[in-house]
């Protein structure tokens, strides 16, 4: 039986978070009402949430793929189409070790809280990044939109624990559901110095949400232009690298910054994360060394890909 693809190159909006990613599990128990993945897989939300087992032979596939990408500057994001910390997350620990052994940094993105702290020792050992998704301030609202995810307070506490252990932290404020909640979360994280990076993205999958929730929270009436400006003002006060995802940044008035700090124009990795002693700055094209290599304009990459080493897979926004 052939091995599945493990490490892949996200496309579209997903690539704004990472140039490389790996989805370890078959489903996700967070049950997010805005998630696009169940429909892509032709499953009901209930079916998708019920199966959080590891993908078949995923660790063997990751071992194979990690050899191809060994030593890359690009961290591998875990995960886009699932949460890396389901009730049984032993596969995540093994994946972090596999990546670390091959000199590949990992970049966690989770909606779990305390349960996601179990691998902090591994993240410390291999210089991994720990990130959470933050959408709502209060538990009641969070339970309506993300019924199976950890409460916001638990996710924030996991960030605090990561900070005390010297692990670099980041957060995805996406999708924005209640603009005032997102602005408050940004301000609170900034005041507490919980984060090293901030990423903010708008709600893109409103059609998948129960119309009753849309009407109750006015999701179809959000003034994205006003919010984008307010978000930039709040993010600038944090003193940390931040960026608005492209779909939201388009609502900014001309001349207003869409990011602070230097980020790769393709994968979004902060220049401060580049670890190569030689290629530790962005090039004139605004790309990190790895994205320059993977560029369709690079004939050497095309030749490498044709030999079977390059792989890609479609991926959408983080659910």
Report on the structure:
It is built from 13 helices and 8 strands. The protein is an alpha/beta fold and 319 residues long. It has one domain: TIM Barrel, CATH 3.20.20.70. Strands 1-2-3-4-5-6-7-8 form an 8-stranded mixed beta sheet. Helix 5 links the parallel strand 3 and strand 4. The longest helix is centred in the middle third of the chain and has 14 residues. The radius of gyration is 19 Å and the shape is globular. The two termini are 30 Å apart.
CATH superfamily heading? Aldolase class I
Give the biggest beta sheet.
8 strands, mixed
Average pLDDT score: 88
CATH class: Alpha Beta
Radius of gyration: 19 Å
Number of helices: 13
Oligomer: single chain
Specify the structural class.
Answer: alpha/beta
Strand order, main sheet: write it out: 1-2-3-4-5-6-7-8
Compute the number of structural domains.
1
Low-confidence sequence ranges: 307-319
Helix content: 25-40%
Shape type: globular
Q: Report the count of strand segments.
A: 8
CATH topology: TIM Barrel
**What's the order of the H and E elements?**
EHHHEHEHEHHEHEHHEHEHH
**Percentage of β-strand residues:** 5-15%
The CATH architecture name reads Alpha-Beta Barrel
First and last CA, distance:
30 Å
